[in-house]
What does this fold into?
Amino acid sequence: MEILKVHELKQHFQVSSGFLARVLSRERPGIIKAVDGVSFSLEQGEILGLAGESGCGKSTACLAIAKLREPTGGAISYKGTDISKLTTQGLRDYRRQVQLIFQDPYESLNPRFKVFDLVAEPLRALRLGEPPEIRRQVRETLGKVGLEPLKYEGRYPHELSGGERQRVGIASALVSNPELVIADEPLSMLDVSIRAGILDLIRELSKGMNFSCIYVSHDLSILSNISERLMIMYLGRTMELAPTGEIIRDPLHPYTRALISAVPIPDPAYRRPVPNIRGEVSRPLNPPPGCRFQGRCSEVTDVCTSTSPPLVEAKPGHYVACHQYTRAA
Amino acid sequence: MKEFLLTQLRILTRHRFGAFGGIVILLFGVIALFGPVLAPHDPWTSLTSADGRLALLRPPSLEFPLGTTSMGRDILSQMIHATRTTVIIGLSSGLISIIIGANVGLLAGYFGGRLDEVLMRFTDIIYGLPFLPFLIVLISLFGRNIWFVILAICCIVWRTSARVVRAQTLSIRQRQFILAARARGASSGRIIYRHILPNIMPLLLLYTAFNIAWSVLAEAGASFLGFSDPDNLSWGGILYNLWISGKIRVAWWWFAWPSICIILLVSALVFVSRAYEEVANPRLRQR
Amino acid sequence: MVLDIKNLSTRYHTSEGVVRAVDGVSLSVGEDQVFGLAGESGCGKSTLIRTVMRLLPGSARVDADELSYEGRDLLSLSDGEYREKILWKGISLVPQSAMNSLNPVYRVGEQVVEAIRAHSRVSRREALEMVGGLFRGVGLQPELVRNYPHELSGGMRQRAMIAMSLALDPRLIIMDEPTTGLDVLVQERILRELKEIRKKKKNAMSILLITHDISVIAEMSDRIGIMYAGRIMEQADALELFREPYHPYTLGLKNAFPSIRQLDRELISIPGAPPNLIGDIPGCVFAFRCPFAVPKCMERRPPDLEVKPNHFVQCIRTDRVEEFRERSGEKETWRSSKSMN
It folds into this structure.
């Protein structure tokens, strides 16, 4: 069953510099198209990986999906309902069902709150239950993330390690029994030897508590391990979307191919191919017409500079936004 | 609540000056609360000394530990009663001004946009309000009343705390745990008072101490110039009486005790605010 | 040997006690060699760098059997001598988050010129010429010399810092997390450029590469050391270390790293956390987290055992390594641990 459908999501920001700034620093006013056409759907219980480098708009897209920022274009529908048309009560329900796990365990927890209060916050803010019920839920959720309630609930964040803090963050996201969890790079600030534990936790809880997950990361190695389907973004657009194994074994988009060949492998004997890509990543400011990737693609053609390629199903279940495949589809 | 008080105690005792300040304030507080009951005489009665004569302008002695005024009134009793007035004015002005300032700062900082503009323009206008002329106008229009003094002091003292709280709110608003709170469903009100406010507490307490100190000084200055409530004697008021009696060059005791107390209380408040400054800005902590 | 370290210890004296940040570390970086030092946060790598580069605070105490650069003893040099003779000419440093340590109000080229002139008697004009060449060497267009740091991307700034470190043709560059925080394509580019630079250089250049990213270490290093809680648990040539790891910590690390070439491999994390480095830790530093530890492990510090030629391990149970290698691949082995991380 489809739980989330995102169609041509756009998030544009107006940039206006003062006259002097424009003269001095060569900055042009214009539009930053942080997200410029992202489309995908999410099945219930699925873990979808959202991959891309910094500046590709993945975190911005997630903010729009979580309704923490209003998108400038496109449509997001959750369980069939257009989320831009939610009432106050509807928004409250949405918040209960759609939650976020944040990247920085040191910054995403209010330093003045005890662990118990941090985990209880969604229930209290959304007024879900009386204190005894809240207490029960909080303790149960703490147990699920592997933190013994009696030992942890009275502590403050600064008394905990990075891994423990991230578990608190996860508990806080899951206590309201959400159905969609957006995890924004939850591992990147943790020590490498404990990442696997947190990743497993998310995977197990996703199955156990039956929630769908959008896992955002720039680390393809991690994504390859946890996500069932993978979506590659570049400069605000979806470039490729397919089951994880398929995308890694048979990447279609030139950008995906470059990305995959760039991922370092923990094996000294392996000789990686050199990524086939030119230039540097550009800012999503006033992008030229045509494919976002044109400036770096080694297979660029004329049509790429004039028209933006649509996302087409080049193989069953495998979507690509590249003119090489537009005709074939 | 209990935890809150315990934490404050811990903060103050960590810092040597803060502890000293805390004790002094506590002392004055006790005097303000219970003093008038324990005062040996009525502050307004002209007294006769043991030898039968009117006790006019007596220097400190066993009979009158702090001396007497030119009207024969016991300065010790006056000081005790005045302490209550001064503390009430200081505390009221300080607390009211911090409540106003904190709320203005929080709302302006969190909501931004038009509300921020309006509130900050308003604050700017208030910055232009001169304390004494304003008080004089109020008194001329409505008479001398302790509440006007408090009002006038509040009006000028809340400004700085508003600006500072706004700056702090702006910076805290960007932090990820506030975004997390929004994601968890907290309303704006909840975010401001439950999430942001606890994080600016050290700053608020710092400014509370400061505001009270400023209030005491402002009150002393106004009273000394005669702009106070004649029924409620304050330390500044005692100095005013001294001034109009013309005996300032002769009666050092009449001058000394109110002045020393003003300095002590204000210093104590400033020391306490220093202790909070170290909490609010951990880099200042002594290793 | 470009850098020779034998039994180096660095201790900080703090109000809470003595912190043994580096505790008896021995390693050697050979000529034209990349030595990869792998370690997570808190393992002591930053302190090790600071010790070699003379950047320690006053409360630190250093002692070693040997700390020498190209045979010259570094410990007996005064700070002035070190700065004049060794710093930037012999050994240079690309610090962590280097891309953020550029002064935002000066042009990038200026800052490199400053660095050059601070450590040599080169004239301004000569230095400016050098910078152009250095930038080209790291794959940056020489025109970028006139840009301000905020006008360059993170990857470009990092390359500028690398150019800075190469300026005076040092024999050894210490790189602290050179690609952490950078996107994978940028990281790949920089690592590739580094390999090119080393090949093109007339004089052999060695790198001491310090990072927590095992994949980067695997790709770049000729020789690898695994650092934990101030000690080097295992040290060997890169291929050898990956083919035949001995130390339980190394075995644990191997399992903790996902790889896109092994999609269905189970990831296992090491429960627990690194120990507090205050005070003396008797026995093996890893013992209380180790699934294979026996009481004897906590009695005395394991000596550096040469299990194969040039392959050193600090573990007393290397006789059971075959069994451990097998068992470390199973999740159950690591589950029975005392503390949650």
